[in-house]
Amino acid sequence: MSHNSFGTLFRFTTWGESHGPALGCVIDGCPPMLAISAEEIQQYLDQRKPGQSKYTTQRREPDQVKILSGTMEDEDGVLRTTGTPISLMIENTDQRSKDYSEIKERYRPGHADYTYDAKYGIRDYRGGGRSSARETAARVAAGAVARKVIPGVTIRAALVQMGPHKINRDNWDWNEVHDNPFFCPDKEAAAFYAEYLDGIRKAGSSVGAVIEVIAEGVPVGLGAPVYGKLDQDIASAMMSINAVKGVEIGNGFEAATLTGEENADEMRMGVDGQPEFLSNHAGGVLGGISSGAPVVARFAIKPTSSILTPRKSITRSGDEVDVMTKGRHDPCVGIRAVPVGEAMMALVLADHFLRHRGQVG
């Protein structure tokens, strides 16, 4: 099974399965002498790890990261990157494979069970194996390293829609994001989501979400025409996240409803002598190249396919059956996708930062 790597100069490969002994990643192309620590990486993993509220899967994983290679202490005792491949490992400690024994021969509707089996002749029924969202823990760890490569860039993400219910953007407050279990920037919407998702959870069902990722401080010039566009790679990165079914940059699909006058990001000279955009419909990318405005991406997460309501399916041998997925699952997997979206943005920007540096010398 190939295609487990992402990136060009800053490149990472993830490994491991949902119910294996461990998972992790290998990062290649990280510059030397960057100060890094397991504690710094851990703070991002702690945002993604399961079992932190009743609104996420109750699988209990500490997601404790170990740095296995690519670093050494300098004469002051500071751990720094050496420029060699960085290997990170996260052990699985709370696997319950028996929860999946009943669906060993059954394809779960909405999951990758059938397609993996049809393509490879084998599927890991224990939580989905490589198709499980558990794999994203390794991405978050890699993203923590990527942030060290892009000085001055701030990357933040928030849940802006749950099911059909959108936030009120007039209430947007970044300080609220970590004050509720939904990473929601709207205090009123977060209160509504608590009651709404509790009903979904108790019914054994699930619901989708929309996540918005914003990178500020991105320098002008990242990305290249025609097949190395920054927004192209961001879209690819976000679409690679489990359960993502749609990605947009800036106004995205809404741009189709605007006129040319409404959509144009007009410019003036700023007080610092640099161009200033009066709006940001383009999401910080023009012609595939960063403009210096905030880079904005949004992605849609489908409802978790593992639900308690029986759904029609078939077995591996072709028998028609109804499938009800037991086990511990997220009623809204979009919640824990917020730190994953931040990580993927960081990984793309780090890669393009190094590619641009190589061009300008």
Structure, described:
The chain is of the alpha+beta class and 361 residues long. The chain has 7 helices and 18 strands. The chain has a 5-stranded antiparallel β-sheet, with helices on one face. A 5-stranded antiparallel β-sheet has the order 9-8-10-16-11. The protein is globular and about 70 Å long. The two termini are 37 Å apart.
Number of helices: 7
N-to-C SSE series? Answer: EEEHEEEEHHEEHEHEHEEEEEEEH
The coarse silhouette is globular
Widest β-sheet, arrangement of strands: 1-2-3-7-4
* End-to-end separation: 37 Å
Q: Strand fraction band?
A: 15-25%
Alpha-beta classification: alpha+beta
Runs with pLDDT <50, length 5+? none
Global Rg? 21 Å
- Percent range for helical residues? 10-25%
Structure summary, number of beta strands: 18
Report the major sheet: 5 strands, antiparallel
| Mean of pLDDT | 93
- The oligomeric state is single chain
Task: Describe the secondary-structure layout.
Layout: E1 5-6, E2 11-16, E3 22-28, H1 38-48, E4 65-69, E5 71-73, E6 79-81, E7 86-91, H2 113-120, H3 136-147, E8 154-162, E9 165-166, H4 187-202, E10 209-216, H5 230-239, E11 244-249, H6 260-263, E12 267-269, E13 275-277, E14 285-286, E15 289-290, E16 295-301, E17 311-314, E18 320-323, H7 337-360
Antiparallel strand pairs: 1-2, 2-3, 3-7, 4-7, 5-6, 8-9, 8-10, 10-16, 11-16, 12-13, 14-15, 17-18
Helix pairs in contact: 1-3, 1-7, 3-7, 5-7
